[in-house]
Amino acid sequence: xxxxxxxxxxxxxxxxxxxxxxxxxxxxxxxxxxxxxxxxxxxxxxxxxxxxxxxxxxxxxxxxxxxxxxxxxxxxxxxxxxxxxxxxxxxxxxxxxxxxxxxxxxxxxxxxxxxxxxxxxxxxxxxxxxxxxxxxxxxxxxxxxxxxxxxxxxxxxxxxxxxxxxxxxxxxxxxxxxxxxxxxxxxxxxxxxxxxxxxxxxxxxxxxxxxxxxxxxxxxxxxxxxxxxxxxxxxxxxxxxxxxxxxxxxxxxxxxxxxxxxxxxxxxxxxxxxxxxxxxxxxxxxxxxxxxxxxxxxxxxxxxxxxxxxxxxxxxxxxxxxxxxxxxxxxxxxxxxxxxxxxxxxxxxxxxxxxxxxxxxxxxxxxxxxxxxxxxxxxxxxxxxxxxxxxxxxxxxxxxxxxxxxxxxxxxxxxxxxxxxxxxxxxxxxxxxxxxxxxxxxxxxxxxxxxxxxxxxxxxxxxxxxxxxxxxxxxxxxxxxxxxxxxxxxxxxxxxxxxxxxxxxxxxxxxxxxxxxxxxxxxxxxx
Length: 527
Fold this sequence. Notes:
Largest sheet: 12 strands, antiparallel
Shape: globular
Radius of gyration: 26 Å
GO molecular function: (3S)-3-hydroxyacyl-CoA dehydrogenase (NAD+) activity; 17-beta-hydroxysteroid dehydrogenase (NAD+) activity; enoyl-CoA hydratase activity; RNA binding
GO cellular component, one term: peroxisome
Number of strands: 21
CATH topology of the largest domain: Thiol Ester Dehydrase, Chain A
CATH superfamily of the largest domain: Hotdog Thioesterase
Protein name: RNP-1 like RNA-binding protein
Keywords: RNA-binding
Number of helices: 11
Mean pLDDT: 79
Strand content: 25-35%
Structural class: alpha+beta
InterPro entries: MaoC-like_dom, MFE-2_N, RRM_dom
């Protein structure tokens, strides 16, 4: 039976939220996974791990794929069964095999994923921002097969391989392998089977180094974490809602169990944070990657062995070991202009109990400099549109000041996009090929009036003045002037201080201060 999955931008964002992305002020670099109009909007690579739960038979309507709560076990798993009946020595021994199989608990012991393609395909954005929204979807094909059934005294280990491909099955996207232990299943009832595919074909798990980790990052799970991940992943198993599992275990904490795939995905978050923090820590004139937007991180492989369950409310710590040198990566990127492969070993530990939750974690990523470096909006071809060159029907808009620029897809080069810089306000962003906008009917591009350009630049100066003023009393996170529909300053702004004490200090010291001929009124916002 064939299965496939359709997803939209909303599904990508919901999954990112279920991993806790954007929940703290330090997660600003994760906005690219949470905002559909972000210049670099993309999907968390581990989103593929949810597809075995969302996969639906191609006989069903595709538009219902991720719009309903799937049953448990989901259709793909129910079709193949944990231990397919064909591996029983006496297939006719049990009239109701599903009922017999339900007597044995199943434990997810190991998971891996290999990415063949670079990233998750993003649903095409509408040509204009408006009521249409991001309603388009992407559909991929999902195929799962059992590759090993190994009876042991403790139970039976079953390994499955899942391949995600394009809908026509031509383009491979990723391959996932998963092992489960069916506790207590009588080994004498099983016909051993091994197709010969093993994880050693890519990596051989090894114990983490004994020295201090290169990096560690802690994450505090919140009370609705399991509930949110349940909705985003499609795993509707009741153990992520009630406390029945924790009550049966020798644990003081009575809480729903967190999904192992959620815990593994924290490894992705931690490694990404490690790379961004490390590669951007050098002085800018000594590194090839100048900003976070310049850095391209492609995950090629991720695996982990599940040792202990995590529960809602646990604090989880990801410890990472890597032998890469920042200077070496920068040198290789500059000289070769090719992606540099870096390997990691990691474990995920319960901060409270010290127990290892995910052991023998391994990852491999490719790091490169975005091919979109440089500014394009000052290019001669763009300036000549409507003059010596015919005005195109496509355009891009600066997210900072709202200025629009006539632009063709070819102007963005042969890759996925380029980095652009607004000539009005200086804002820079990554413009992807599939997010260029189409000029609507009865609309045309017109020259930006001189008064609007001056107004924008004056607003920028006012924002900079506010930033400099508030920076004197504490660390500023963001300054945002409130403007009307015409872009005119409405006379007030929101300033986010990174620390509560700094915010209180700003209200005490800056209220009534004169700035550019006007007295400031500084108070806490209602929201």
